[in-house]
Design brief:
- The protein is mainly α.
- The chain has a single domain, classed as Up-down Bundle (Substrate Binding Domain Of Dnak, Chain:A, Domain 2), CATH 1.20.1270.
- The protein contains four helices and no strands.
- The protein has helices at 2-29, 38-57, 63-81, 87-107.
- Helix 2 packs antiparallel against helix 3.
């Protein structure tokens, strides 16, 4: 199991970064007029990233399946955040794209 967790480490790190950036973005967008569902999308993305980290950390059998879903959610969140020029949205977009990339690698 230690080997499985080691193989997931890059993805775990990307998911944790994405989780933090999504929560920060959602918090910063509270009370802002929005063009889309950015805040809600960020909260959803944070939740799936958290679940992904937990499953990878235990070397779960369904980690690849969950990573496939996480990659899709992260890509959608990145698109939502790309509509804004706020620093927190740009940071969130970047970490979502990185997370999607690492999750796709695990899912492959």
């Amino acid at each position: 199991m230690a080997t499985a967790t080691a193989n997931y480490q890059e993805c775990i790190d990307a998911c944790n970064e994405c989780l933090a950036d999504c929560l920060a973005c959602a918090a910063a967008m509270i009370g802002e007029e929005t063009k889309n569902d950015c805040p809600k999308c960020c909260l959803e993305c944070a939740a799936i990233c958290r679940a992904c980290v937990e499953v990878m950390a235990i070397g779960g059998e369904r980690a690849a399946d969950l990573c496939r879903i996480c990659a899709d959610v992260c890509e959608h969140c990145a698109e939502e955040c790309s509509a804004y020029k706020h620093k927190h949205c740009q940071k969130c977009e970047k970490s979502c794209r990185r997370c999607a990339e690492t999750c796709q690698a695990v899912a492959a």
